[in-house]
Amino acid sequence: MSNNRPILLVEDNPDDEALALHAFSKNQITNPVIVVHDGAEALDYLFGTGSYAGSSGPLPAVVMLDLKLPRIDGLEVLRHIRADSRTTLLPVVVLTTSRESLDLQQAYNLGANSYVRKPVDFERFVQVIGLLGRYWLEVNESSDASTRNGY
Predict the structure, then answer these.
(1) pLDDT at 76 over 90
(2) Which range of residues forms the domain containing residue 75?
(3) pTM
């Protein structure tokens, strides 16, 4: 991939995490993948707080955000991302098993760039991750504001 900024994968389910990492590899997406397991850890990573205090680096190219997370749920993470000028333009793809129409509506109302239901079928999951990766890392043109260091 031409964009070597990391992908932030916010996923609390170890099986879904393993599938996503396998799917990135199978689709030859070589960007580093930073995995965090709850909403609080995602916000710490993005804003350089908590266990990520003192860390610096570029914002991720894209955040792949599960909704049903411990500590702080995905919708609240999205609300924080959009409320901060450092991350307001950061691409966020909601990647969830939720079939709740309210979740879909709220995610878009809060500024999600995309809402994708995780396919149950492994091969379809690999295909979807490949499409998402190619789009957000190769096709999409990022705003300068979404590439700045978030700290």
Answers:
(1) yes
(2) 10-137
(3) 0.90
